[in-house]
């Protein structure tokens, strides 16, 4: 009976986690659909600090309603096969949530910093920042000493400017490297990918389901 109860509890926790992940993906799709008001924010803040104004605050919502910005065109999600090719070629598994972000929401362009990298660079710019190009460039981020402090491979996912980069591990933990500090290596943020994205989204705006 005790084992049955533990199995039921484990299944319940898995269901809650899946529901929470589905809610997160729903909010991210809504966020991508309305466009990223980067142009408006750059006009509003001369220093170009993207995160100075959260998209969900009152002024940001008003700008969205009044269309006082040029939204980015949402990128289409990538086929699952594209993720599988990367995993089979590199031997590095995408965390499940990251896989769902690329295959169910969009091919990057949203999220903390300047947004998630696209999975692959465009054919006309093969060295453009992207998950596959940056991963291959550094041989899975094992060659560079500042990225050798993690027992798992580090998948580059976002740029924050000033060479600050975020990474995700196959287990879904976000790491960050900031070469502008005295810390020489990438360090864990102690945030899951889910928490990292939820922090960027902030509270659900009025009229959107949380």
Architecture blueprint of SSEs:
Layout: H1 2-33, H2 38-44, H3 58-65, H4 80-90, H5 96-105, H6 131-137, E1 155-159, E2 165-168, E3 173-177, E4 187-192, H7 193-201
Antiparallel strand pairs: 1-2, 2-3, 3-4
Give an overview of the whole structure.
- The protein has helices at 2-33, 38-44, 58-65, 80-90, 96-105, 131-137, 193-201, and strands at residues 155-159, 165-168, 173-177, 187-192.
- By secondary structure, it is of the alpha+beta class.
- It has a domain at 73-201: SMI1/KNR4-like, CATH 3.40.1580.10.
- Strands 1-2-3-4 form a 4-stranded antiparallel sheet.
- It is globular, with a radius of gyration of 18 Å.
Keywords:
alpha+beta; 210 residues; 4 strands; globular; SMI1/KNR4-like; 7 helices
CATH architecture of the domain at 73-201: 3-Layer(aba) Sandwich
How many β-strand runs?
A: 4
Backbone shape: globular
Helix-strand pattern, N to C?
HHHHHHEEEEH
- For this structure, the CATH topology of the domain at 73-201 is SMI1/KNR4-like
- At the fourth level of CATH, the homologous superfamily of the domain at 73-201 is SMI1/KNR4-like
Quickly give the structural class: alpha+beta
How is the largest sheet built, in terms of strand order?
Answer: 1-2-3-4
Low-confidence stretches: 5-16, 37-56
- CA-based gyration radius: 18 Å
The largest pleated sheet is described as: 4 strands, antiparallel
Distance between the termini: 36 Å
Tell me the helix content.
40-55%
* CATH class descriptor of the domain at 73-201: Alpha Beta
Task: Give the helix tally.
Answer: 7
Protein name: SMI1/KNR4 family protein
InterPro entries: Knr4/Smi1-like_sf
């Amino acid at each position: 009976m005790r084992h049955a109860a533990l199995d039921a509890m484990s299944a319940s926790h898995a269901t809650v986690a899946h529901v929470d992940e589905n809610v997160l993906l729903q909010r991210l799709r809504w966020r991508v659909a309305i466009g990223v008001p980067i142009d408006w924010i750059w006009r509003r803040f001369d220093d170009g600090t993207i995160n100075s104004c959260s998209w969900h605050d009152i002024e940001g919502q008003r700008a969205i309603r009044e269309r006082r910005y040029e939204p980015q065109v949402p990128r289409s999600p990538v086929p699952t096969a594209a993720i599988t090719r990367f995993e089979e070629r590199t031997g590095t598994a995408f965390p499940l949530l990251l896989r769902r972000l690329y295959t169910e929401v969009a091919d990057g362009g949203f999220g903390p910093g300047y947004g998630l990298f696209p999975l692959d660079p465009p054919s006309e710019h093969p060295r453009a920042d992207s998950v596959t190009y940056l991963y291959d460039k550094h041989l899975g981020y094992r060659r560079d000493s500042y990225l050798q402090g993690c027992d798992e491979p580090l998948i580059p996912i976002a740029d924050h400017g000033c060479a600050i980069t975020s990474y995700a591990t196959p287990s879904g933990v976000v790491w960050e490297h900031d070469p502008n500090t005295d810390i020489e290596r990438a360090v864990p943020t102690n945030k899951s990918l889910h928490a990292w994205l939820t922090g960027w989204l902030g509270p659900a705006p009025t009229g959107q389901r949380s």
